[in-house]
Design a protein that fits this description.
The structure is a single chain. The chain folds into two domains: 12-135 and 328-338, NAD(P)-binding Rossmann-like Domain (Rossmann fold), CATH 3.40.50.720; 139-323, 2-Layer Sandwich (Dihydrodipicolinate Reductase, domain 2). The protein has helices at 22-33, 83-95, 137-152, 171-185, 217-229, 264-273, 291-294, 325-338; strands at residues 12-17, 38-45, 53-56, 59-62, 64-65, 76-79, 99-102, 131-133, 155-164, 204-205, 237-243, 250-258, 277-279, 300-307, 314-321. The mean pLDDT is 95. Helix 1 crosses helix 8 (325-338). The strands form three sheets. The chain has a seven-stranded mixed beta sheet. A six-stranded parallel beta sheet has the order 5-2-1-6-7-8, with helices on both faces. It has a two-stranded antiparallel sheet with strand order 3-4. The chain is of the alpha/beta class and 343 residues long. The relative contact order is 0.15.
């Protein structure tokens, strides 16, 4: 059972809730790749995915439908099946004494639930009361860049535009982008069933619900979650989120206004040494980060750092990061790694 804030010094019984989804599959891959200490692995899902078989460490594992007994004896639950599912099963998971690392938006803004990016606010994870929230994918990528810059020079305001891949809407959206792109190339009219509009050779403003201020839910997540992660309740950020026809990996255009000037050279130095980030800059060849550079990789790539010609206190930059990996599964596992007993 859980021994807060650290797990006991032994392999853990781990459950993955939502194991058949894109993030769930990435979690399984990373648990094996990172040699996470798993004694027993339980794959849980809905009735629709129940019975499907997935290979892990050379052994076949069958997804079982989640039920009241599914979490008995479990130490750690990675939940990635949506907010309603997480809210429904949290009481059962807590009753069993397991830690829940939740990838949905169900608990991110709850005052008693830490919202953690391990490279930014690892100490928050130690204050958990049985649940730790994984931030939104675009928020994770952005905060990896904002935090080290903010530690050096106070940020006054951020303006960000996102270019979000189909993977952010799940495995079915990725498959739909493939099939609808084929339809367009073969002269058929693409008809989307997963997303509200066809993403094939198209883009549209993010499809999350609009709030009363005409910002969508995704844009408000970036603001509110960044404020919580950075522990700056008055942090000023505005966002425009866009869905683009990229299979996997999100991109963001970021304008950062500081209270005082920060040189481009110093910003590059800060970024190049920040954890979880790499600098891709080839000005002569006009070569900067692209989604293909980060797909399947841990690092968030940053480049085209330049002086804002309209404001001497502001810098412009571009970043790309794998939404399924660092934007979801990897961040969740890194949170769990913070709680492993120190050797």
């Amino acid at each position: 059972m859980l021994n807060p804030p650290f797990f006991s010094d032994r392999p853990l019984k781990v459950a993955v809730l939502g194991a058949s989804g894109a993030v769930g599959q990435e979690l399984l891959h990373l648990l094996e790749e990172r040699l996470f200490p798993v004694e027993e692995l339980r794959l849980l899902g809905s009735s629709r995915s129940s019975g499907s078989i997935h290979n892990w460490k050379g052994k076949a594992h069958t997804i079982t439908e989640v039920n009241d007994k599914a979490f008995e004896g479990v130490d750690l639950v990675f939940a990635s099946a949506g907010g309603a599912v997480s809210r429904n099963w949290r009481p059962v998971i807590s009753r069993e004494g397991a830690l829940m690392i939740d990838n949905s938006n169900a608990f991110r803004m709850a005052p008693d639930v830490p919202l953690v990016v391990p490279e930014v606010n690892p100490e928050a994870a130690l204050k958990h009361q049985g649940v730790i929230a994984n931030p939104n994918c675009t928020t994770i990528l952005l905060n990896l860049v904002l935090a080290p810059l903010s530690n050096h020079s106070e940020i006054k305001r951020v303006v960000v535009s996102t270019y979000q891949s189909a993977s952010g809407a799940g495995a079915r959206a990725m498959e739909e982008l493939k099939s609808l792109s084929k339809d367009v190339l073969e002269g058929r009219i693409p008809e989307s069933k997963v997303l509200p509009h066809s993403l094939a050779f198209n883009l549209f403003l993010h499809n999350s619900p609009l709030e009363s201020n005409c910002y969508c839910e995704e844009e408000m997540k970036m603001l509110n979650e960044t404020r919580k992660i950075m522990d700056k309740p008055d942090f000023r950020l505005t966002a425009t989120c866009v869905r683009v026809p990229v299979l996997r990996a999100h991109s963001e255009s970021v304008n950062i206004e500081f209270n005082e000037p920060l040189s481009v050279d110093l910003a590059k130095q800060i970024i190049s040494t920040a954890p979880g980030v790499e600098l891709i800059e080839d000005v002569e060849e006009n070569r900067f980060p692209m989604p293909v550079d980060v797909t399947g990789r841990d690092q968030v790539a940053v480049g085209r750092i330049r002086q804002d010609i309209s404001d001497s206190n502001a810098l412009e930059l571009w970043l790309c990061g794998d939404q399924i990996r660092k934007g979801a599964a990897l961040n969740a596992i890194q949170i769990a790694e913070l709680l492993l007993s120190p050797s």
